[in-house]
Amino acid sequence: MLLQDKVAVLYGAGGDIGGAVARAFGREGARLYLTGHHLAPVEAVAKEVVAAGGSAEAAEVDALDEQAIDTHLQSVTDQAGRLDISFNAVGTKLVYVPLVELDLERFSLPITTHTRSYFLTARQAARRMVPRRSGVIMTVTALHSRTGIPLVGGFGPAQAAKEALTRDLSAELAAQGIRVVGLRPQGIPETRAIRNGFERLAKATGMTWDQFQQQLAGGTHPRRLSTLEELANMAVFMASERASGMIGTTVNLSMGSLDD
Ligand SMILES: NC(=O)c1ccc[n+]([C@@H]2O[C@H](COP(=O)([O-])OP(=O)(O)OC[C@H]3O[C@@H](n4cnc5c(N)ncnc54)[C@H](OP(=O)(O)O)[C@@H]3O)[C@@H](O)[C@H]2O)c1
Fold this sequence. Notes:
Radius of gyration: 18 Å
Order of helices and strands: EHEHEHEHEHEHHHE
Largest sheet: 7 strands, parallel
Oligomer: single chain
Strand content: 15-25%
Bound molecules: NADP nicotinamide-adenine-dinucleotide phosphate
Strand order of the largest sheet: 3-2-1-4-5-6-7
Number of strands: 7
Shape: globular
């Protein structure tokens, strides 16, 4: 198994991507400490991991509260002896309002939430990893980091900031044995985020689910969107020692729709 006995903490583990990555890490033998700011969905994922033969504990942690992150990580390292992987899958809902009509608070929300949460969880992880000169810090971004997409408010700047932070963290931490890497997936139709986007458009235009997916997939090479399983498989690989040559970068999982 690629992650046998690796101690992994996930933030936003009750979300669609966090949950899929947790299940995949669990199948590959990781010891999981799953967190979210609402406990019930995180507990549900932990139960699934354990039912499938894996190891997972759930905890309520607000990934914007540095004290809560620190306290939780201390309990993890007290129990497990180390931290090998930190994975931030925290997300916010899209606004679907034109930028010229959007108030500053709603524009800023994804920027402050995504960037602050990634910064806080990454640096708290790094403080535990540096003394052992080993560890992987990971997050998820979206195509919005690299291409203009309408009606998403501050979501694009937030994704671009996280990719810059991945590079900058890596530039400071790689020499101390820490790999910092990201994943940039296409829209994934199984997720509530994509479903919500569809429902909004369907209401306004009468578009069908198939038409919506075709529209989103139109720019990809295979003319299809990616799956949660494809993303989770790449997350496993990137978290594993097989990816030791992947440093300070965000993996382009845009199915060909974005050139490098
Ligand atoms: N879905 C896609 O197709 C897709 C594609 C590309 C990139 N992404 C990116 O992947 C990430 C995850 O997306 P997703 O689809 O899994 O979204 P999601 O299902 O909404 O999951 C996000 C999770 O973050 C949690 N969260 C929000 N604020 C938090 C906080 N302060 N502390 C702890 N947890 C918090 C949410 O909890 P609550 O729900 O309880 O608030 C939720 O469980 C996002 O950054 C998104 O931009 C998604």
